[in-house]
Amino acid sequence: MKKVRWVILALAILLAGGALFEINNLSNQIRKSEKEKVKLWANAISQKAQLVNYSEQFFAHVALDEHRKMEMYTNILRSFDQMDANSDANFSLDYVRYIIDSCETAIIITNKDSIITAPSEMAGRKLEGDLLKEFSKNEPFHYRIWGMRMTLYYKESRVYTELRNMLDGFNMSFLTEITQNSVFVPVLVVDSLQGEVLGWGNIAEHEFRTPERLSEKLCEMEEENDPIEFRLPDNTRAYLFYESTPLLHALRWVPLLYLFVAMVLVIVTYYLFRTARKMEQNRIWVGMAKETAHQLGTPISSLMAWVQYLEGKTFDTTYAAEVNKDLQRLETVAHRFSKIGSNPELKMENVCDTVRNVVNYLQTRSSRKVKFVMNFTDEDLIIPLNKYLFEWVIENICKNAIDAMDGKGTFTVIVSADTHHVYIDLADTGKGMSKKIQKKIFDSGFTTKQRGWGLGLSLSKRIINQYHKGRIFVKYSVEGQGTVFRIVLNR
């Protein structure tokens, strides 16, 4: 039975270990996949930051190109100031209008009094208010034509404006896309000095509300992943700190969780098996006890009737007295077995008297080569006992001791006590026991005798531990020297 128990336990451990290995392998694969997703997303963000920077550089170049174009137009207009006064004025004005009309950039030319002279549809109006504000975003150009002081105002072209609006929208969505990422990564975007938070996502604000907490959070993130440096659309440097997704954090605990569950299952299985075995043993013991009590009942009643009959006849009363002792003994055995299957009643008994009666009974029926030594305390030790069952325990140990001594040696019984406990030491000078046997001596079914059932000490332990709430154990045993059993009872 024990081998079967250990085999089942080993199989359960192997199955749990195999399942744990597979779960751990699956967790590692998911963890690796999530890491790759995070890296791909981070690289995409970095590439997008570069794209924003390149776009900004491109539009800066376009703005410079428009400025140079306006400067070129102004130089052309200045050239009219150097023309001969006799030149065709109408040709000159037509040429100026052609230059202005062919320019894709919105242009306004005013005289010294800020009166618009071109374009023709706005001529005569004064440049002021919102119109002046709209055309004053870029530095105007001043020049003279035919001695008159003129000023050229311009604003970016329509195509440039549309592209600029698109870029602004692109830039506005940049940090939003970082902080509200599709892989649900907790991120923090900080400036180059790592003191100001520019954006965050998938993370509680209270975790970086103060400078101290921000510094601690950035250190935690940096320990897990290296920050990504990139340029913002305004060409300032920033850092992207990120940590693993909640799924990755949860996966770290999955193997430990399943290990805990596996251990619980193994322990529960083991104890269920053990409990079932104990229940089976209890049923065996109870059935054996009930059957023994039933089988002994009939002959005891018959013998008692014969004793009563013989006492009235001409017969030696000595024989009747001895037969009566054995009958009482049989009755005691019946009581013992009948009490095993139920909760026995404990009464206040004198331990010394109870032990002395058992030893005296066995002494008269044992070999004269066995010397019995009894050393009892003078104190009356009155404690709750079930006399029938407790005598059985003492008898079991005494008989085992006599068998271990092969019918010759010394059997010693010592009864002592302290404030809280009563100690009964039962010593013999027999064969002794090895450490291996000492561990199994109280197991049900274990015996070193050829014709033993292996129930005596097992039942003794049940009677002392469960019924009397005490303890019984091997106090001392050496092979070739003898064994000492100790029983401890509560006062």
Helix and strand arrangement:
Blueprint: H1 2-79, H2 89-102, E1 106-110, E2 116-118, H3 129-135, E3 141-145, E4 148-155, H4 158-179, E5 187-191, E6 197-201, H5 211-224, E7 228-231, E8 237-242, H6 246-311, H7 317-340, E9 347-350, H8 351-364, E10 370-376, E11 382-385, H9 387-404, E12 409-417, E13 421-428, H10 435-440, H11 456-467, E14 471-478, E15 482-490
Parallel strand pairs: 10-12
Antiparallel strand pairs: 1-2, 1-4, 3-4, 5-6, 5-8, 7-8, 9-11, 12-13, 13-15, 14-15
Describe the structure.
The chain has 491 residues and is an alpha+beta fold. The protein folds into three domains: 2-159, Beta-Lactamase (2-Layer Sandwich); 176-246, no CATH class; 345-490, Heat Shock Protein 90 (2-Layer Sandwich), CATH 3.30.565. It has eleven helices and 15 strands. It has a five-stranded mixed sheet. A hairpin with a 5-residue loop joins strand 5 (187-191) and strand 6 (197-201).
How would you concisely characterize the structure shown here?
By secondary structure, the chain is α+β, with helices and mostly antiparallel strands. It contains eleven helices and 15 strands. The chain has three domains: 2-159, Beta-Lactamase (2-Layer Sandwich), CATH 3.30.450; 176-246, no CATH class; 345-490, Histidine kinase-like ATPase, C-terminal domain (Heat Shock Protein 90), CATH 3.30.565.
